[in-house]
Design brief:
It is built from 8 helices and 21 strands. It has about 350 residues and is an alpha+beta fold. Bound molecules: adenosine-5'-diphosphate (ADP) and magnesium ion (MG).
Amino acid sequence: MTLKLENVAKTFPDGTRALLTTDLEVGAGEIISLLGPSGCGKTTLLRIIGGLETPDDGGRVYFDGQDVTDLPVERRRIGMVFQSYALFPNMNVRRNIGYGLKMLKLAQNEIDARVSEVIEMCHLGGFEERSISALSGGQKQRVALARAVAPRPRILLLDEPLSALDAALRDRLRDELATLLRRFDITAVFVTHDQTEALAIADRVAVMSQGVVQQIAPPEVLYRNPASEFVAEFVGDAQLLRGTIAKDCLHLRGGTQVLPKDGQGHTAFVRAENVLLDPDGSLSGRVTSVVFLGTHYRVGLEQVTDEILFAHHAGPAPEIGSDQKLRIAPEAVMLLNPSRVTQ
Ligand code: ADP
Ligand code: MG
């Protein structure tokens, strides 16, 4: 199913402008992530898609070209997964998953077949008769997902489904979810404030701030070509290189950095993984912190710019207080238009 939002905005009765005018198109089977800090309007947008909230006058929502703006939630055929699993504690796994199918008044053998199918897909085999209270957090979330997809909804809406899980489990379930959603071949909108989740799961990520979609792009494009400072800093922790730009050179406290092109009127950003310790580098700085992160050391350096600049280093660990040369490939410098978004 394709999804289209036209002129969708939301002002709550108390005057809160949760969502400014938004247009969005999602292709059939596409997985979109809404990514942004808390309070930026993600849930509001998701609830408008689901029919749990009505947009301000003039906003329209289309499913496969059909205007569903005035269609109530129960007639939109959506599947939903939330952070709180919202499972029925007094029913076992099989009955939780079959619940929506029963509501659709399907024949029992059809219900059984579909439930078995999603149990298999969601790796819940062997847990059919378990009660919900006897499941781990990750298993509960898989049951919630299975229950949401069993009625074959036209679109799956997920609101921070992994946020309640502990870190290790969250990473595992994130990768699993990315694979599962593709296998279901379902159009999905996935809300998260976690950039890693958004990059891992979505075909395209919509970065939101203060009720506005700032940029929507495939993960790689978003990461490598952020459209604004806000996106660069929110996705992947880009660092500002504060200095003076003169044509294709950036003069920093610790030396001169060549830019990929004339950077006049722009600000320069770089990601830590593109700042490397190299004796032949053109920049210099002094080591203030060294942290081992398994795959590399994260090295903090002062006197390169006004703030601490972080670099990645394979090893050996440099000494704190030592002077080091740094290298940044010109192509790794991102030149962005200063944006007014501050959050
Ligand atoms: P997110 O999901 O990105 O954290 P929300 O969409 O929940 O953000 O909220 C966006 C803004 O709208 C916030 O400022 C929030 O406080 C406000 N908001 C959400 N729901 C309501 C409501 N029912 N009434 C008034 N304000 C609301
Ligand atoms: Mg929310």
